[in-house]
Specification:
Length: 207
């Protein structure tokens, strides 16, 4: 990043911290988490989001994610089953190598054939309806991925969309409006920046 870019980022971060001073407590976690995601093993999500996932994901959880990385490492250590869909061939090869001997992780490289993410989006179709405890939408074509994943989330399960503040994710917010949600934001690992993520919980009987 060039100097003007660094100044803009620094100003933005200062503004975000001024508006959310409670996030100052997570600055040391950002400092401690410098490195590559596969070595550090943390999702590229705000620490408040990671802490919320820690409350949700357990040894019986079935997790599906669009976009692999540090999150795959983190889920692998906590969940019963992790399926990770990755479009980038080089990144997918690194993930496949990393998890080759990890029985609860299934990394699937799904390329954007001819520039189309149809197959990538449809990868969640291999799961039965109402079967996934957590779906993390953190890769490509996020609105379509969120819409395709909705019926696959079990009642009481969670659909998690990173960078949910982006205006063009509006159709996902509209489709998910009947599900209760919470949006969390704060300091994230790896870079001095804020992340914004929304959790939707699929209503369960009796809610
Ligand atoms: C926002 S990242 C998030 C990935 C993952 N859910 C996580 O939390 O670590 C989305 C995409 O960036 C790419 N990516 C992530 N980390 C990378 C890295 N260290 N080097 C190259 N590509 C990376 C991958 O294609 C990935 O699907």
């Amino acid at each position: 990043m060039n100097l003007p870019g660094k100044i803009r980022t620094g100003r933005r971060l200062a503004g975000q911290l001024a508006r959310t001073p409670s996030e100052l407590r997570n600055v040391p976690r950002t400092v401690r988490s410098q490195g590559t995601p596969l070595d550090v093993g943390l999702p590229w999500l705000a620490f408040v989001v990671i802490d919320r996932l820690d409350e949700i994901v357990g040894p019986e959880s079935s997790v599906f994610e669009f976009g692999g990385g540090g999150s795959t490492v983190w889920f692998a250590e906590r969940a019963r089953q992790v399926t990770s869909i990755e479009h980038d061939p080089e990144w997918a090869a690194l993930l496949e190598e990393r998890f080759a001997a990890t029985p609860n992780v299934d990394v699937r490289h799904v390329a954007a054939a001819g520039g189309s993410y149809d197959e990538y989006v449809a990868s969640v179709e291999s799961f039965p309806d109402d079967s996934l405890d957590v779906v993390l939408v953190d890769g490509r074509s996020r609105v379509r991925c969120a819409l395709a994943a909705m019926p696959k989330v079990r009642p009481g399960g969670f659909l998690v969309l990173d960078d949910s503040q982006r205006k063009y994710y509006g159709p996902a917010h509209e489709a998910l409006a009947p599900w209760p949600h919470e949006t969390l934001q704060g300091m994230a690992p790896y870079k001095f920046d804020f992340g914004v993520t929304t959790f939707w919980r699929r209503p369960a009987e009796g809610d």
